[in-house]
Amino acid sequence: MNKKMTSLLLAATFSSGLLMAQSITEDFKPSRFNQPGQAYPQVNSQGYARFRVHAPAADSVKVSLGLGGRGGTVLTKGTDGFFSGTTEGPMDEGFHYYNLTVNGGRFNDPGALNFFGSTRWESGIEIPAHDQDFYALKDVPHGQVSQILFPSKSTQTSRRAYVYTPPGYSKDLNSRYPVLYLQHGWGEDETAWTNQGLAHLIMDNLIAEGKIKPFIIVMTYGMTNEIKWGRIRDFKIDSFETVLVKELIPYIDAHFRTKADQPHRAMAGLSMGGMETKMVTLANPNVFSHYALLSGGTYAPADIKDKSKVKLIFLSCGSKENPEGVKKAADELKAAGFNSVSYVSPNTAHEFQTWRRSLKELAPLLFTK
Questions:
Q1: Is residue 254 classed as helix, strand or coil in its secondary structure?
Q2: In angstroms, rounded to a whole number, what is the distance separating the alpha carbons of residues 332 and 301?
Q3: Which pTM value belongs to this model?
Q4: pLDDT tens digits, residue range 122-141?
């Protein structure tokens, strides 16, 4: 390559980079999940994220892999001791975990709230979604999310669960409600579906719009964190199945106004929670009648011995996951006579925006008869 061509190529590359930088819309606002009063991290309407961290004694700060991709976002130190930078590209809509690498050590961002994921408390950031209205905090009647501690003889301790009761539950003492048992994914816990997934707001809005019949949601720890990443096949369901079926469900039926029978009981889970859901539902056909796997595998017609026991099978994933496999599995179930529905979240992967949307699509299908 001659010098003239090299010069032209370098000029074009520089110009392209400059145009890319100039193309970022400067309408950045604090993320939904910032600590109170904290201006950073920020997000813009295109899906870029911008960070600013005070670390005057540090030599290097990088935002964790996944934010903007390509090894993370390296922040630049200013003379004021603040490190700042913007992701190289836009991110998927919705919620994302992240952390900071400061001089080689891993830390959370002091500007952001923390969320339990990947077996630890991680920083979280929210990229505004075009369809975020369905989980927005609105002026509608709100349900209640309460923490309960229930006795577990099998584990010789008291265990924790969170229970969503719909608006009006505490006033209409004559009504009883169906129950959805909703499981988190690997490395998360029973706080995930409300903290990251905003399940309570999704429910409140759907109920206010008259799109669903009110029901209770129960979220408990799936005992998944004892399994290290890459060793999911070593997971054994027995202990969790005992806690859920023999201890938690009887406790919920005794302490909440439930419709305590199989036709009014559902189970769903995201990712590894989907694996748990599949294993538990197949082993307990007299306990659950509605099954849902959210980025958590599929059912096959041969898996289910008594078709009459199953009212619904819901399968979902993001469009960047395995949409064809999910659609194919749902079609095969439907051809075999099951009430089977598939849903693919557009332009998302294995992430909470996929699962928020999945819950929005699932809820109106539950307990309709």
A1: helix
A2: 7
A3: 0.91
A4: 999 999 999 999 999 999 99
Residue 11 lies in a domain: no
User: In the listed set 107, 128, 149, which residue is the last one of a domain according to the structure?
Assistant: 128
Residue 12 falls inside a structural domain: no
Do 346 and 242 share a structural domain? yes
Find how far residue 246's CA is from the centre of its chain: 27
On whether the CB atoms of residues 228 and 234 are closer than 8 A, the answer is no
Q: Which residue range is the domain that position 190 belongs to? A: 134-365
Rounded CA-CA distance 128/96 in Å is 11
- Long-range contacts formed by 44-50: CB under 8 A, 24+ apart: 45/128, 46/90, 47/90, 47/91, 47/92, 47/93, 47/127, 47/128, 48/24, 48/86, 48/87, 48/89, 48/90, 48/91, 49/73, 49/86, 49/87, 49/91, 49/125, 49/127, 50/84, 50/85, 50/86, 50/87
- Do residues 105 and 230 share a domain? no
Do 241 and 168 share a structural domain?
yes
The DSSP-derived string for 305-357 is S-GGG-SEEEEEEETTS-HHHHHHHHHHHHHTT--EEEEEETT--SSHHHHHH
Predicted confidence (pLDDT) per residue in 79-97, tens digit: 999 999 999 999 999 999 9
Q: Which of 101, 128, 155 is the last residue of a domain?
A: 128
| Residue 159 and residue 93 share a domain | no
